[in-house]
């Protein structure tokens, strides 16, 4: 659009210049002048691809008819695009065009001779038509180069900042992975070893079963911990690990409830609504809510009876874990207190809500409502 307007402007300015020029040969009729102006306008429009045709038309028409608009625009483009050697060649061409125009002015005489053949007017016209546009083109190119250099520098600084941030995150992830491996994995490994030793040495069948259960849970915890450490050390492994060992969903819930029952808790499962497949992220979050709630029952309520409810609603999946008051005094297992905080973050990230509250009978309720939509079975 910009070059269309430029072509129209060159055409109009050229036509006005020719029509009002006293030195134009009287043998040229108006249609010829219109055609010459139209050619100048077309070459100005074509300058978006190549400005050399405009320069050629400008040189010919300035030397022949003292028509300056195409040469003015061509001089600006020369300043924008030519190298130092090209500028010297263009300057020499402009001097030659001015000489030819002066000869033509002396030939035609009259006003044309005064404009292009007299030294003062010729220099002033050359400066206005060729010199100033050339300088303006050089200034525009320099400004463009400065802006491009500043943009490139800003982009480079942004890339370096991102790289430094990624490096810092990688180092921090590696540090956390080392700490988890050296502390948590070591402690869990000791638990598994002691449970295995107890299972082998004890003569009591019930104790052996409990030791085997503890050992199995510990080995599962080590596997999960190894997966987390792998993700921390190399985030790109996350997708691969997800394919090899998919995270648990509601299909694994019965195994989780059986583990709690083996530890002496009476867990009852209730399902309401028609079970249907939902998004994997929703199922995983629901599973983690139930897992964390049962862990809190083990820590704080001992062998209190617990009800687990899964309710399939319209566009919503709701899970509830409600435990009764403990039957006998139970010493709390120390914890960091971040379990429910992490659950709330998981649930709210999916657009759901998490509610935790004690009841009047001394029990505790954990309830999560997760928005979900039905998915096609695999």
UniProtKB/TrEMBL annotation:
Membrane-crossing residue ranges in chain numbering: 30-47, 54-76, 88-110, 122-140
EC number of this enzyme: 2.7.13.3
Coiled-coil regions, chain positions: 140-167
Domain Signal transduction histidine kinase subgroup 3 dimerisation and phosphoacceptor: 172-235
Gene Ontology CC: one annotated term: membrane
Keywords on record: ATP-binding, Coiled coil, Kinase, Membrane, Nucleotide-binding, Phosphoprotein, Transferase, Transmembrane, Transmembrane helix, Two-component regulatory system
Domain of life: Bacteria
Domain Histidine kinase/HSP90-like ATPase residues, every copy: 283-373
InterPro entries per UniProt: HATPase_C_sf, HATPase_dom, Sensor_HK_TwoCompSys, Sig_transdc_His_kin_sub3_dim/P
Enzyme class label: transferase
Entries under Gene3D superfamilies matching the protein: 1.20.5.1930, Histidine kinase-like ATPase, C-terminal domain
Protein name: histidine kinase
Organism, scientific name: Nonomuraea fuscirosea
């Amino acid at each position: 659009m910009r070059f269309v307007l430029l072509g129209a402007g060159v055409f109009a300015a050229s036509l006005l210049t020719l029509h009002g020029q006293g030195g134009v040969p009287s043998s040229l009729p108006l249609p010829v002048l219109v055609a010459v102006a139209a050619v100048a306008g077309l070459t100005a429009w074509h300058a978006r691809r190549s400005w050399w045709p405009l320069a050629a038309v400008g040189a010919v028409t300035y030397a022949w008819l003292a028509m300056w608009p195409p040469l003015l625009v061509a001089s600006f483009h020369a300043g924008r695009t030519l190298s130092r050697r090209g500028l010297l060649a263009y300057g020499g061409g402009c001097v030659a065009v001015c000489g030819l125009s002066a000869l033509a002015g002396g030939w035609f005489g009259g006003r044309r001779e005064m404009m292009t053949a007299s030294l003062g007017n010729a220099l002033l016209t050359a400066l206005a038509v060729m010199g100033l546009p050339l300088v303006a083109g050089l200034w525009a190119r320099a400004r463009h180069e400065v802006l491009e250099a500043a943009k490139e520098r800003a982009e480079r600084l942004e890339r370096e900042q991102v790289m430094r941030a990624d490096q810092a995150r990688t180092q921090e992830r590696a540090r956390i992975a080392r700490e988890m491996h050296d502390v948590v994995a070591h402690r869990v490994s000791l638990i598994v070893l002691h449970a295995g030793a107890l299972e082998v040495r004890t003569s009591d069948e019930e104790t052996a079963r409990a030791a085997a259960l503890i050992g199995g849970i510990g080995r599962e915890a080590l596997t999960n911990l190894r997966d987390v450490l792998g993700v921390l050390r190399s985030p790109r492994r996350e997708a691969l690990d997800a394919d090899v060992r998919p995270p648990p969903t509601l299909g694994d819930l019965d195994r989780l409830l059986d583990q709690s029952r083996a530890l002496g808790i009476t867990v009852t499962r209730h399902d309401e609504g028609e079970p249907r497949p939902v998004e994997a992220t929703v199922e995983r979050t629901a599973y983690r809510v139930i897992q964390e709630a049962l862990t809190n029952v083990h820590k704080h309520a001992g062998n209190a009876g617990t009800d687990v409810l899964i309710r399939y609603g319209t566009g919503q999946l709701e899970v509830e874990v409600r435990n009764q008051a403990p039957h006998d005094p139970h010493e709390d297992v120390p914890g960091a207190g971040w379990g429910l905080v992490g659950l709330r973050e998981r649930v709210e990230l999916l657009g759901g809500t998490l509610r935790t509250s004690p009841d009047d009978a001394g029990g505790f309720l954990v309830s999560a409502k997760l928005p979900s939509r039905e998915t096609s079975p695999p």
